[in-house]
Automatic annotation (TrEMBL):
Pfam families: Asp_aminotransf (PF12897). One of its GO terms (molecular function) is L-aspartate:2-oxoglutarate aminotransferase activity. PANTHER family: AMINOTRANSFERASE, PUTATIVE-RELATED, ASPARTATE AMINOTRANSFERASE. This is Aminotransferase/MSMEI_6121. The keyword Cytoplasm does not apply. Keywords: Aminotransferase, Transferase. It comes from BD1-7 clade bacterium. InterPro entries: AspAT_Ic, PyrdxlP-dep_Trfase, PyrdxlP-dep_Trfase_major, PyrdxlP-dep_Trfase_small. It comes from the Bacteria.
């Protein structure tokens, strides 16, 4: 193991190492690379796993439940598609609504309806608050933060550990501030850390409705619920059932999709909620839509066959993703396995590896990597308002590039971390 331990070097050795690293930097700068680890997009090979969706209906547009999918109607989706989504989210079919292709759209619509109209009558609308606020476990998903900014919802960061959000902090904030109307959660293989919430954390989140102000909602973005890399990764507890057991099922909205399962731009999005929440959501959705794309829903039902078919499909994704994640983790372990220069997560699923530099260095690493032709997610993107107060976190997204390109990108990333760390130590 070629571990990087600059703390063991004296000033002269550090200066010599800096010259060596700068020389390597200039050599790589002339290589003219163009590599991108910014977003968790499926690779072309992953998308090709679903190519047989095209033409799978062979002119038969009628579902087993008797619906002519070419026509209007069916606001909450085909029963067969709802059954698949229910198993993916571990809820009852009656709890599910199928939307278009994007769960992000369903989340945005849910915020819109809650903010403008209320999910429990006009008086419950968040716009009535002087300032509506959301809790945001960090590091987290930048698009969640963008939704809040679009509605001028104030975001409050709360830290996470390997079990999920620090619930003592979450509960304290909610109990003492009635303007907090929601919390964002990515509970399984979280974006970007890859951690999965423990049963205790799920139970405590399920009970938040009992201590929160009226009209509080947990936004449970279970985007990676079935996206394992390690097939033995433990499942997470069902939040909706836990909330029912706690007597506050109306405080929970759950979301998921097949956007990274089949075609990213033509999958199925779904949500699960209490009957009361679904009724409120459909009341407004029904004004904006006469019904979703049921032809696409039927295509997915025929393609998977059943939930076992869906899980078998996810095994194929895992086989393509694992070598990419292994390339990232191998580079990190080789160069920083016995070093305090960098820490990282080792996810069992999802689409990201989260790394933390020493304090104050993330933006420098990202800028250096860009000079060498490697695009990384901007430093701070995993925090509300793009502001990581310690300037440490970087999200690596290895799903889209080839393994060879990831290996090259990680060579550059490793060099930039080393050079930024040595520069900082010499500047002290």
């Amino acid at each position: 193991m070629n571990a990087f331990n600059p703390d063991q070097f004296d000033q002269n050795a550090l200066q010599q190492l800096q010259r060596q690293l700068r020389s390597e930097f200039e050599t790589l700068k002339s290589a003219g690379l163009s590599l991108d680890l910014t977003r968790g997009k499926p690779s072309a090979d992953q998308l090709s796993l679903s190519d047989s969706l095209d033409g799978i209906l062979a002119g038969n547009y009628k579902s087993d439940s008797g619906t002519d999918t070419r026509n209007y109607g069916g606001l909450d989706g085909l029963p067969e598609a709802k059954a698949l989504a229910a198993q993916a989210l571990d809820v009852d079919v009656s709890d599910v609504l199928i939307g278009g292709n994007s769960s992000l759209t369903l989340m945005y619509q849910s915020i819109l309806f809650a903010y403008m109209f209320g999910l429990n009558g006009e008086a419950s609308a968040w716009k009535n608050e002087t300032k509506a606020k959301f809790l945001c476990p960090v590091p987290g998903y930048d698009r969640h933060f963008s939704i809040c900014e679009d509605f001028d919802i104030e975001m409050i960061s709360v830290p996470m550990d390997e079990n999920g959000p620090i619930m003592d902090e979450v509960e304290k904030l909610i109990a003492n501030d009635t303007s907090i109307k929601g919390i964002w959660c990515v509970p399984r293989f979280s974006n970007p850390t890859g951690i999965s919430y423990s049963d205790e954390v799920v139970d405590r989140i399920a009970r938040l409705g009992n201590i929160a102000s009226d009209n509080f909602r947990v936004f449970w973005d279970n985007a990676y619920a079935i996206h394992h890399i390690n097939k033995d990764a433990a499942p997470i507890k069902c939040l909706l059932q836990a909330a029912r057991d706690a007597g506050c099922e109306d405080s929970v909205l759950m979301f998921g999709s097949t956007s990274k399962v089949t075609f990213a731009g033509a999958g199925l999005a779904y949500m699960a909620a209490s009957a009361k929440n679904l009724a409120a959501f459909k009341n407004h959705l029904g004004i904006a839509s006469i019904g979703p794309d049921k032809v696409n829903q039927l295509r997915h039902v025929k393609f998977f066959g059943d939930f076992d078919g869906l899980l078998a499909h996810m095994d194929k994704h895992a086989a393509l993703l694992k070598p990419r994640f292994d390339a990232v983790l191998s580079a990190l372990n080789t160069h920083f396995g016995d070093s305090d220069a960098l820490t990282w997560t080792t996810p069992e699923g999802g689409y990201f590896v989260s790394v933390d530099t020493q304090q104050g260095l993330a933006s420098s690493v990202v800028a250096m990597a860009a000079e060498l032709g490697v695009k990384l997610t901007p430093a701070g993107a995993t925090f509300p308002y793009g502001n990581d107060p310690e300037n440490r976190n970087i999200r690596l997204a290895p799903s889209f590039p080839t393994v060879d390109d990831i290996t090259k990108a990680m060579e550059i990333f490793v060099l930039c971390v080393k050079l930024a760390t040595v520069n900082a130590k010499l500047a002290d």
